Amino acid sequence: MAARFVQISAALMVMGLIIGPIAAVLWGAGSMPAPRDADWQALRFTIWQAFLSASVSVILAIPTARALARQNFFGRGVLITLLGAPFILPVIVAVLGLLAVFGNSGTVNTILGWAGLPQISVYGIQGVVLAHVFFNLPLATRLILQGWLSLPGERLRLAESLGLGPWQFMGVLEWPMLRQVLPGAFAAIFVICLSSFAVALTLGGGPRATTLELAIYQTLRMDFDLGRAGLLAGLQLVVALTAGLLALGVTRAPGFGVGLDRVIQRQDATKILVRLQDAVCLVCVTLFLMGPLSAVVLRGMGALHELGPSVWWAAGYSLSVALGSTALCIVWALALAHRGGEWLSLAGISLSPLVLGIGLFLLLRPFVHPGDLALLVTAVLNALMALPFAVRILRPEVEATRQDHARLSAALGLSSWLWLRWILLPRLKRPLGFAAGLTAALSIGDLGVIALFADPDRATLPLQIYRLMSSYRMEQAGAAALVLLMLSLGVFWLFDRGGRANVKA
Amino acid sequence: MLKLDGIQASAGNFDLKADFTLSGPGRVAVLGPSGAGKSTLLDVIAGFRLPKVGRICVEGLDITGMATADRGVAILFQDNNLFPHLTVSQNLALALRPTGGRLTRQNKAQIDKALSDVDLADLGGRRPSHLSGGQQSRAALARILVQKARVWLLDEPFSALGPGLRAELIARVSHIAQTQGALVVMVTHDPHDAQLFADKVILVTDGKAACPDPAQEFFANPPSAYLDYLGNNRSSLK
Description:
Low-confidence stretches of chain A: 253-258
Largest sheet of chain B: 11 strands, mixed
CATH class of chain A: Mainly Alpha
Oligomer: heterodimer
Helix content of chain B: 25-40%
Number of strands of chain B: 11
Mean pLDDT of chain A: 87
Number of helices of chain B: 8
CATH topology of the largest domain in chain B: Rossmann fold
CATH superfamily of the largest domain in chain B: P-loop containing nucleotide triphosphate hydrolases
Structural class of chain B: alpha/beta
Number of strands of chain A: 0
Number of domains of chain B: 2
Number of domains of chain A: 1
Shape of chain B: globular
CATH topology of chain A: MetI-like fold
CATH architecture of chain A: Orthogonal Bundle
């Protein structure tokens, strides 16, 4: 009974947090304006940059995944693990890293300058796509690698025994596999890039590189035009839902935790030319991913001592927001770890977080102290945004535990509280640690709704970094980014490790 | 002691019918082909499945609509009889105080007694995965002992063990049940186990539970439905 009550009240709460803010925005807007040219342009740019980002990521991921699939080398496992890291990497940190490498005074332009070649600019669509590829090339590689490793061993041996050449091998085995895997990978990345905000905020902008999310931000920040924000959010929702449904249609995705530690055995993988080709590919990708990160670490370390108290305060606020939103998200996820709950949790992320945030802001304004409002809204929204991942991670374990032990618990007459305390939570320790780590890391690195209405004195760390960047204090921004990087990796590591510590059989 | 009064319960695509009384302590084997409704019968008595018609009484008390834990029955399942992440003692403690609260000294004595009754006195601190298959079954038996139920339902509980170990455990259950004055209802598909164990037999065929027969008569003169199930291979009966 009690369990049912918790489930239903959590569902109602999440539903309320989705519907309430939207209603508040629509109420505040009064009437919806007609779309302007700029709105259509934002829509076109959103789709175009998502298309480019997804295409480039997937195309580059194919040779990378193939190299990882057929070559075994020292550090392969580490590299595959690193490919999972961008998921919890704060966008602002990556942006600073990319600026250090590809920016106006970055490494690449310095080299180009020496060689007397024209400089490249990282602002505008090329910067947006670059950052999206940085984040999503690893994801694409992992998805495609899964496809490669799912090629049945006996079929590989058959191809080997028939002596198929590389082209026949590709036609008979690899191409059919890719045809199944690529649409799903493309669609997933396309959907992710559609709702891009922080990347567009930092590297895009201007009429020619504004995504819908960024347009929502601008219309709220400049004119507080709720009607137009609602209109843009509506466009965003239609595009995201359409793409999301298409993605669901073409994905046969096993989401998490498929073993990637196998290597497919191919005799021609040992040929010197093939090995060289794979090596070049992997070195390039590793440089592309690790270069910006190393730049953040190296540049940040030099300026750590320059960090003022405002950065440390911001770090403190970020940490509290992250912990609060993790607690909230985990409680919801436990209560919603069923089929309906998973759908409900997805509904939250199909809406514009900025619009949800502004709605929540309007709803809470009469009740909460204005200084606390921005942080509170951020914590709640972050919990909502991480919820689908947390539910995805917890649900299989919750269902397995129930399946295995519900009858015995009923036979003993265990109370709901003892079931939770002695059976469910101990059995869920590992996925709980992982889910909490992801949520905390995502929340601590989030630069979203907080940018809209943060108090000047109460910024989160990502926002503080953005402010430093905007006032061209790049040294300090770099050092603060290093702090943020350490914080987000640190909270993830702590939670995840906590879940693994002396796990019982 | 256990009375099924005009019971009809849905069991997938057929209905299980049962109407019988087991009047006192004893050991009853439930036999029959798989899919005939043996486990359904146990589920109905345990309360995992509600009957469409009829009443179930334990010691004169109507338990038809009660929750499993309130029925005065204890159950040994085929597997998952113990929580794997808890020690044997913790498992027993949970069975003793399923709604929480501190264990009294008397509770602790009960747990120790149950463990020594099944010869696991020193192993209470171990988790099930650190016990052998036979020890796990005995630990589950100790769990039933602390539950203090008068009716025990056993759903092929030892089927994962070898024949020797199974015979030993069945003898142990019989012995302990006798000293406790419990009524044990055990589902099995093995005629040897049934002969070893039971003083009464309930045959379940085609969704109907027959009235309990004395075991000696049943095995001396088996009903034709049972012979069909054995494939007329009477050699499997002694």
